Amino acid sequence: MPSGGVCTDLVVRAFRGAGIDLQKQVHEDMGAHFAAYPQLWGAGGPDANIDHRRVPNLMTFLRRQGRWLPTGTTGADAAGWRPGDVVFWDLPGGLKHCGVISDRPGRSGLPLVIHNIGQAAEEDCLTRWPIIGHGRAGIDG
Fold this sequence. Notes:
alpha+beta; 4 helices
């Protein structure tokens, strides 16, 4: 589990390992639909080196692809989380964070999450912070 980089790097690397080039997909979609993405960084257009490294961009991409799912973690909603899904959180101070759902359950009964918040880790943390998104990347690209 590489520890370098930020949370989005971990997500992109995980998908790359599964044969999905999320970096390329995000960049291409931003190139075709730049105005649909958050305009928070003063960029005049897409940048293949950074587009995928911004949590709001990953969220927008998954929404645009129709791969946005319920965020509940109780009852029937808890079963909606699958290995490889991406969870997005709102951390204290308004920081956005993301991780990948593991194929292993935690003691909480919810799946473990692989994320990088200073160091890559697999933890029982799905409900540690407010969930603001749940996406599923496709295998079509």
